[in-house]
């Protein structure tokens, strides 16, 4: 069997020193996460993060930088995730839009409020990504290349 990590995207979105998080249903109960989700077939990473933010928060997201590329696994027998985390801004909120299945609501939380919820974070990547962002880890989007259907 060939090992393959799940490829996911996530967004760190800050406004007035608060970060946009989703509260979502998981198999372990309600958890807090950045807007995030799986890369879909024939989709590039930037399109994926824009789609996921919109589906989960009803905000339009404009990625500006890459915060980090993280490989995470909770335990040895669990699936692995390769997560590309973006930072950017959002605009054009649609309060009438139904949120993605499993998303209960959204929150704008300070870094301190996120840390206070550490036991309810979806993964360690949530706070790590906020800290990477706050520590100035911002890489240009140009580092990402998409060669889907490009040929040889």
Which spans have pLDDT < 50 for at least 5 consecutive residues?
none
Look at the structure and name the CATH superfamily.
Answer: Nucleoside Triphosphate Pyrophosphohydrolase
Global outline: globular
Q: Assembly type of the shown chains?
A: single chain
Please tally the β strands and state the result.
8
Strand content: 35-45%
Kindly report the average pLDDT value: 95
User: What is the CATH class name?
Assistant: Alpha Beta
The structural class is alpha+beta
Helix coverage percent of residues?
10-25%
**How widely separated are the two ends?**
27 Å
Predict the CATH topology: Nucleoside Triphosphate Pyrophosphohydrolase
Number of domains: 1
Topology as H/E string?
EEEEHEEEHHE
CATH architecture: Alpha-Beta Complex
Sketch the major β-sheet.
Answer: 8 strands, mixed
Number of continuous helical runs: 3
Backbone CA Rg: 15 Å
């Amino acid at each position: 069997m060939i090992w393959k990590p799940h490829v996911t995207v996530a967004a760190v979105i800050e406004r007035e020193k608060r970060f946009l998080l989703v509260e979502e249903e998981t198999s372990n109960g309600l958890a807090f996460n950045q807007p995030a989700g799986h890369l879909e077939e024939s989709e590039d990473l930037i399109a994926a993060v824009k789609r996921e933010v919109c589906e989960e928060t009803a905000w339009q997201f404009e990625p500006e930088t890459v915060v980090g590329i993280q490989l995470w696994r909770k335990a040895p027998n669990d699936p692995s995730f390769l997560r590309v985390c973006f930072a950017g801004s959002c605009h054009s909120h649609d309060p009438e839009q139904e949120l993605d299945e499993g998303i209960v609501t959204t929150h704008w939380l300070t870094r301190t409020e996120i840390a206070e919820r550490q036991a309810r974070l979806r993964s360690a990547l949530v706070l790590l990504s906020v800290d990477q962002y706050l520590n100035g880890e911002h890489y240009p989007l140009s580092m990402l290349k998409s060669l889907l259907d490009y040929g040889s």
